[in-house]
Amino acid sequence: MNISGSIKDTRNQVKEWKSQGLSVALVPTMGYLHDGHKSLMERARKENDKVVVSIFVNPMQFGPQEDYDSYPRDLERDGAICQEAGVDWIFHPEVEEMYGPHFCGYVDMHTLPEKLCGASRPVHFRGVQTVVSKLFHIIPAQRAYFGQKDAQQLAIIRRMVMDLDFDIEIIGCPIVREADGLAKSSRNTYLSREERAQAVILNQSLEEAMRLVEAGEKEAEKVKEAIIKKLSGCPLARIDYVEIVSFDNIQPIQRLEGPVLIAIAVYIGTTRLIDNRIIM
Ligand code: PAF
Questions:
Q1: CA proximity to 56, closest of 171, 138, 159
Q2: N or C: fewer beta carbons within 10 Å in the chain?
Q3: Which atom of ligand 1 is closest in space to residue 56's alpha carbon?
Q4: Are the C-beta atoms of residues 99 and 61 closer than 8 Å to each other?
């Protein structure tokens, strides 16, 4: 396995593999890898000849008051996890390699990024779309793997690939959870012991929602109310949003019909966590 910070070397390697007729997968990450990332790498390993993992904490997707500086980083540990997962190449660029001094080539779709996480993190999705576009150009893989925990990100990237004609297949992979149901996230490391215990409320509130849906409830407002009621019973939880939207275009819906995304963002103490259910 190679680790490279060079755009040129990484692109040349991927081109060489492709010229040999090998299929290449990209797993974009911000590092501090956990079992959720591992599941993406393992799936990529199964379905492709070569696997590239990018590890880049992208400053452009963090707002000024957000946790860019404190975002957890551990390249040595990440390297060992990638090695074990059979990754062939890690792309780990410096910020200067990705964004030169006069950088201004942003990618910014409209509509999809405005709601849910985009409402409370106004620059976030522009940063995600820009860096993911760059990664798709640097690493012209046949397939890219993303987790469904970031469901809005997945919907935006799918839309971006469609609208801008990127020649890459986007594969969404299921959320990986801790034994008690908390979705795996690099940010879980911020939680104190007490916060960690209460963080299970996110998944529990969504389970409550699914019980209603499975019993035939079609009114989005009723499902939303049940989630808010459950979350409100947790002393350390502060709701950022509870939304029920169409998964295709991230627009609010009244009735649960077609592909539906039930998405929540909740502060547990000062840590903002997200979780969701996608109903196809
Ligand atoms: O999901 C993430 O870890 C990031 O948003 C991504 C897709 C790697 C872009 O920086």
A1: 138
A2: C
A3: 10
A4: no
